[in-house]
Amino acid sequence: MSAAILVRLLLWLWLGGALAAGHHGTWAQLPPLGQGALVLALALGAFSLAHRLPALAAGHYGVWAQLPPLGQGALVLTLALGAFSLVQRLPVLATWVDELDLRALILPHACRLAGTYLVARHLDGDLPRAFILAAGIGEAVVAAVALPLALAPLTDAARARAARIWAVAGLLNLLLVLATLVRLNLQGPLLLRELQGLPLSLFPTFLYPLALAGSVLVLRRAAAR
Asked: Against a cut of 0.90, is the pTM above it?
């Protein structure tokens, strides 16, 4: 079986699982941690399913490379605002997110462990050290803290307090990533040339916007506790 066929099969299985969970009421039957695990699994599936869009825009057509440095930062923030607005404006999504446990909002941020891949690319000489400190190590630390924060047996009040601190730290790290990205591109566009193609183009065009929007959702939910 070729890799392309396997990927398509996994994507169809993901979509079918998501539809089945909604139609047969599987979600309501799961414990809170089970709901969080399902959200994480679906988030990972969504990442695989939706990566075609940023791949076409930023990788295949070179849209990311054609933007000026400030335009690249603005694009990341615009995509994050669009994702957050989508959740707010679509009643189905808004209701679904409001019903999620706080732990289910935190767990998908484990995907930010992908920052370790950037560290590996830095060790290969593809990315500068200045970018790796926040985009690689910083994001990996934020993701590593998300796991015990979601899974530890904490009271709701304690988890909410810790989640507020974690979400603010995660947002600050993402803003540092964007500031570093813009600064390095102003210094020399070739410093981050690896971000112009796949798979690294998915970080600024997909992962960072979703992480920004998700961090705001966690902060809003934790602040309401």
From this structure: no
